[in-house]
Amino acid sequence: MSKTIPPPHSMEAEQAVLACLMIDDCYGIIDGYLDEIDFYDPMHKRIFKVIRHLAVSNQCYDLMSVFIFINDAKEPVDT
């Protein structure tokens, strides 16, 4: 019986990247370097997609904006 081994990942590193994006308003710096597929945790993927959506829409993407967007969204963000 073979076990599926998860790919290498760091939840703390993913959280740190997302926190830096929301605190420093620096999506433009990482645009083109990171994508949601670079995140292992499904919620981190979702948060990154929301940040990207808000950033390319020229909207604020701080902690509260992302939280409100995720809680109000009925459909997944496809940006």
Strand content: under 5%
Rounded to an integer, what's the Rg over CA atoms? 14 Å
Q: What number is the mean pLDDT?
A: 88
Helix content: 40-55%
Outline the biggest β-sheet. Answer: none
Provide the structure class: mainly alpha
Per DSSP, the total helix count is 4
**Envelope shape:** globular
| Strand elements, count | 0
- What is the CA–CA distance across the termini? 40 Å
Task: Please sum up the structure shown.
The chain has helices at residues 11-24, 27-30, 42-56, 63-72.
How would you characterize the overall build of this protein?
The chain has 79 residues and is mainly alpha-helical. The protein has helices at residues 11-24, 27-30, 42-56, 63-72.
What is the element layout, followed by pairings?
Blueprint (H helix, E strand, L loop, with lengths): L10 H14 L2 H4 L11 H15 L6 H10 L7
Question: What labels would you give this structure?
Answer:
79 residues; mainly alpha; globular; 0% strand
